[in-house]
Specification:
Helix 5 packs across helix 6, helix 7 packs across helix 14 and helix 8 packs antiparallel against helix 9. Strands 9-8-7-6-10-11-12 form a seven-stranded mixed beta sheet. Among the domains are: 140 residues, Leucine Dehydrogenase, chain A, domain 1 (Rossmann fold); 154 residues, Rossmann fold, CATH 3.40.50. Helices cover 46% and strands 17% of the residues. It is α/β, with parallel strands linked by helices. A hairpin with a 5-residue loop joins strand 1 and strand 2.
């Protein structure tokens, strides 16, 4: 466990899954659900752990741990990411599976939540080794995966190529089934624009928020933690709207330019495999942790879980935090930000673009009827803007935070489905 992970747990004394369960309890209390219902909502339908032996390129043998958690499938098949990261464990998989249930319900998509992955740092393995592990993992969980049961998608350190390997291994046992995974290459049934969907969707939600709050996005100074598929597209979309992206970071470092970074140059550099710190643009190099507490208008944590904790939330100087990563703000940090009057747009709505993209790709694969990029863009904007308005109106009517509103709306929809199916 890294020092930062340890500090985050000390922050609130909770593992990620227990922290998310606390939000469900708050929603149940806000909705005045009868006793016991919230306990049902926190149960996982299935938890799988697998051990994958790998003969490495140098001839040595290692064993890799993998997980898949399926949370609540009452509204449809399970849906959720595959993450390859050293911190991938059962607690994190439980938390993210639960979050996917609530995100799907908030966006009114016909899915339940799932999550999982491999406990590895992919940079420590060759391409051939990562492929071998992906194929082993797909076969190990193939009995609980499928278009009508559980549809994995890319997450941290996974991409279209990995999803293609996963699909190919799955198909050796179950036949051709492109709807079994999403986030695939376009040539295998993926959709154009899927890789940009989460970042573009976040900015569309921010557009809706700016209109509601009377903000001019073109006058905002933005700091973005993380410059992968999410952060880089957030930067590009905001830059196109005239906003000033003053700081950005990735695993290679963090950069600052108060007059505004050259976003197209940063995007080209990172797309070529370089860090934002190697982009050859004018900047001041800063410590990655410093980015979170810069003097800016909008902060977008789009890198890792638990970025804002009790140790730095009181130093945040942005007036708006828009979550681009999964669970980037701990419960204690969330309370500190609320007490300081800092608006937080939660990942449940701000990060919904990728899930909408997965829904469109899944529907396209099931019906063998392609969606063009224009139709996908309209679906993305419509779903996210409706979800934001629902959250904002619930928050105003009940005097609660956007996070509490998002969870309450989602929980109510899942509870309605449970009632209709006679389960409660």
């Amino acid at each position: 466990m890294t020092v930062m992970s340890s500090l985050a747990m000390i922050d609130h004394g909770l593992t990620a899954d227990v922290a998310v369960a606390g939000y469900v309890d708050q929603a149940a209390e806000l909705l005045e659900l009868r006793p016991g219902v919230s306990e049902i909502l926190k149960l996982n339908e299935r938890e799988i752990g697998v051990q994958l032996p790998l003969r490495r390129d140098d001839g040595s043998l290692t064993v890799v741990q993998g997980y898949r958690v399926q949370h609540q499938g009452v509204r449809g098949p399970f849906k959720g990411g595959l993450r390859y990261h050293p911190k991938t464990d059962l607690h994190q998989s439980r938390a993210f599976a639960s979050i996917m249930t609530w995100k799907a319900a908030l966006l009114d998509l016909p899915f339940g939540g799932a999550h999982g992955g491999l406990q590895i740092d992919p940079s420590d393995f060759s391409t051939a080794e990562v492929e071998a592990l992906t194929r082993q993992f797909a076969l190990a969980v193939s009995h609980v995966i499928g278009p009508d049961h559980d549809i994995p998608a890319p997450d941290l350190n996974t991409d279209a190529r990995i999803m293609a390997w996963f699909l190919d291994a799955y198909s050796t046992r179950h036949g051709y089934a492109p709807a079994a995974v999403t986030g695939k290459p376009v040539g295998l049934g993926g959709i154009p624009g899927r890789d940009a969907a989460t970042g573009r969707g976040l900015v569309q939600v921010l557009d809706a928020a700016a209109r509601r709050w009377g903000l001019d996005l073109s006058s905002q100074r933005v700091a973005i933690q993380g410059f992968g598929d999410v952060g880089s597209w957030v930067a590009r979309e905001l830059d196109a709207r005239g906003a000033r992206v003053i700081a950005a970071s990735d695993a290679g470092g963090a950069v600052l330019n108060e007059r505004g970074l050259a976003v197209p140059a940063l995007a080209r550099a990172t797309a070529a495999g370089y860090s934002v710190a190697d982009a050859g643009v004018t900047y001041e190099r800063i410590a990655p942790a410093e980015l979170l507490t810069l003097d800016c208008d909008i902060l977008v944590p789009a890198a890792t879980t638990e970025a804002l904790t009790v140790f730095n939330a009181d130093q945040v100087r942005a007036s708006v935090v828009v979550e681009g990563a999964t669970h980037p703000v701990t419960p204690h940090a969330d309370r500190i930000l609320a007490d300081r009057g800092i608006r937080v747009v939660p990942d449940l709505v701000a990060g919904g673009g990728g899930l909408v993209g997965s829904y469109v790709e899944w529907a396209q694969n099931l019906h063998r009827f392609p969606w063009d990029e224009q139709r996908f863009a309209a679906e993305l904007r419509g779903r996210l803007e409706r979800a934001f308005v629902d959250v904002a109106e619930f928050s105003e009517q009940h005097g609660c935070s956007y996070r509490q509103a998002a969870y309450a709306i989602a929980v109510e929809r899942v509870v309605d489905a449970l009632r209709l199916r006679g389960r409660i």
